[in-house]
Specification:
Length: 327
Amino acid sequence: MNEFALIDLIKAECALQRADVRIGNGDDAAAVAIPDGHELLVCTDTLVAGRHFPMDTRPEDIGWKSLAVNLSDLAAMGATPAFALLALCLPSADSDWVRAFARGFADLARLHDVALIGGDTSRGPLTITVTALGFAPHGRALKRSGARPGDTIVVCGDIGLAAAGLHHLTTMPERSRDGLDDSKSSMQRWLDALNRPTPQIEQGLLLRHYATSAIDISDGLAADLGHVLRQSGVGADIQLPSIPGFEALSQSFGADLAIRWVLCGGDDYVLLATLSPDRFDEARAAFQRSGVMLTPIGNVTAAPGLRVHDIRGSALALDKAGWDHFA
Ligand code: ADP
Ligand code: MG
């Protein structure tokens, strides 16, 4: 199969049309209309085989995830996704692989009415770069830099599950990976968190009404909250036992792994935000109606730095290997 047949295959799988695409996929560049009073938000993320996902990840999952990580960035800005571009670097012209990949990508694109308006295809080590575009009302996009001392820090879902999924894949023998497909076990939940992250678009739109800052957790809670704190010129205290997912992971894997995964695991694609404490009850009720729990995990402080407290209130320290108890 040649390059153009592969492109046609991708276009056929991702055939979603939008009225605001004025010049669509197939020309030298696409042209899109921006709604009055809105800004265009643009982000891009690359997934490299063996680095961002295990080499034997199913192509459907790689397709889904390559779009999901980008939609998650738009969600963190409070944007409504609209368009995507797909730059694919493929080791070979494997049409079955490309069809399955495009199907996973299209499954998520359809859920959020995202049109594939262009891309690039070349030969090389398996690498996927997606660019996502979306809209937010003028001046209303959420940023990392708005956190204020006294704000409550919230997360919009369980943390550390994807890291548990990756741990499961790298420690379980090949044979026991199969047979999980139809089970609703915890393991399947962890693997789904790793392979099929859900970008929190609706939650990002809700946060636009309440949050002073927001970010999606992709590199681990500690690192990503750290970005918010630095860019806002503030610090924070957070309570480890309040982090949703921590207790369950502790029970299954012990506290040391659970601490590492909820603070440093990454690949969560859960939104973290700060908001004034007097908006919290209203925000939580709105989130409940959207079927997602908004969980407070700590507070923003004027004093810089991130302090993580365990169940007894003692602080944990960051060492080279990750977060650990003070000796
Ligand atoms: P050019 O040589 O002008 O860059 P290409 O031959 O690379 O154009 O691509 C032809 C058309 O197909 C373009 O509209 C491009 O956006 C689209 N395209 C190429 N690769 C992909 C892809 N992987 N996914 C979606 N669209 C693609
Ligand atoms: Mg051209």
